[in-house]
Amino acid sequence: ISIRATADPQLQHFIEIESQKQRFQQLVHQMTEVCWEKCMDKPGPKLDSRTEICFVNCVERFIDTSQFILNRLEQTQRSKGSFSETMSD
């Protein structure tokens, strides 16, 4: 990306939105792969209730875990930021 392109706020916003879309799609793909391997014994025309419950629980745990990790990373970033600010004072 050229210097001019990085200075354009609309382009920066567009790139950020597209990056978020890509991260979301990767997360959905990863979640699908994990839950499919965990819950799907033998594919058939319908999901039985046990498999359906497994998928629901797997997706919920995956989302909870992802959210926990993101929150933890944010906390770590904030604590490092405040630590480095106090070190520079």
Please describe what this structure looks like:
The protein is mostly helical and 89 residues long. The protein has a single domain (10-85), classed as Mitochondrial import inner membrane translocase subunit tim13 like domains (Helix Hairpins). It has three helices and no strands. It has helices at 3-7, 9-39, 49-88. Helix 2 crosses helix 3 (49-88). The longest helix has 40 residues, at 49-88. The radius of gyration is 20 Å and the shape is elongated.
Average pLDDT over all residues = 84
Structural class: mainly alpha
For the record, the count of structural domains works out to 1
The dominant shape is elongated
Helical fraction? over 70%
CATH topology: Helix Hairpins
The Rg value, from CA coordinates, equals 20 Å
Spans of 5+ residues with little confidence (pLDDT < 50)?
A: none
Keywords: Chaperone, Disulfide bond, Membrane, Metal-binding, Mitochondrion, Mitochondrion inner membrane, Protein transport, Translocation, Transport, Zinc
Subcellular location: Mitochondrion inner membrane
Protein name: Mitochondrial import inner membrane translocase subunit
Subunit structure: Heterohexamer; composed of 3 copies of TIMM8A and 3 copies of TIMM13, named soluble 70 kDa complex. Associates with the TIM22 complex, whose core is composed of TIMM22.
